[in-house]
Amino acid sequence: MTPSQDDLKRAAAERAVEFIVNGTVIGLGTGTTMRYVIERLGAMLASGARRGVTAVPTSEDTAARCRALNIPLATLDEQPRLALAIDGADEVGPKLDLIKGLGGALLREKLVAGAAERFVVVADASKRVKKLGTLAPVPVEVVPFGWTTHLPFFLKLGAEPALRRAADTRPFVTDEGNHIVDLRFPRGVPDPQALARALARRPGIVEDGLFLGMADAALIANGRGVTLLER
Q1: Active site residue 109
Q2: Which of 28, 40, 64, 220 has the fewest beta carbons under 10 Å from its own?
Q3: 56 shares its domain with 147
């Protein structure tokens, strides 16, 4: 029987929890794959298979799921150095460069990943790409004030920009109170490093979903099992 995508996500998540060491503070990302990580960690803490683990969540959603499973929480201000961060990805490209942020938590996710001694990504094989931007857009978090002024700039970059909207069609709002503009590149991102530099220089852009050179390892699940890739 061919495993479903949920089966693959669960398999990658269960391998990822093996990286968690007793008595450490870790970062926990946001998204569907991370829900399996959180469930597994909660069960291990409840059974005593793991002890003394505290989590720094990357979103209010992750924080709520952790509280429901009695996973101790801390903030990044309280614990500025993390032993490990685990998170999903929307694309995993060459050299483990990533696109993240379709769940809307890219700003906190990048802060938490940057604070960790080791950043491990969990994903199913469908997220592997040869060129970033092939499947997923690049999320860009912008302050609401004057967000439309970025649109001509995004077009000049070769992107097709679209304001992300919530289910009720109103603009999606991040946990930090910002908007997200998704940049789709018809042929993929031609130069991710150059794009990241251009976005970082523009006032009003808070952060982008390009996680370049940040991941130390990735656990990729496919029908044959879970493969560990290291940068």
Answers
A1: yes
A2: 64
A3: no
Query: How does pLDDT run across 157-181, given as a tens digit for each residue?
Result: 999 999 999 999 999 999 999 999 9
Residues 44 and 101 reside in one and the same domain: yes
Whole-number pLDDT of residue 2 = 75
Domain that holds residue 190: 138-208
Instruction: Indicate the residue type of 198.
Output: A
Same domain, 196 and 219: no
* Residue of 109, 160, 176, 230 marked active site: 109
What is the DSSP annotation of the chain?
-PPPHHHHHHHHHHHHHTT--TT-EEEE--SHHHHHHHHHHHHHHHHTSS-S-EEEESSHHHHHHHHHTT--B--TTT--SBSEEEE--SEE-GGG-EE--TTS-HHHHHHHHHTBS-EEEEEEGGGB-SSTTSSS-EEEEE-STTGGGGHHHHHHTT-EEEE-B-TTSSBP--TTS-EEEEEE-TT--S-HHHHHHHHHTSTTEEEESEE-S--SEEEEEETTEEEEEE-
pTM assigned to the model:
0.95
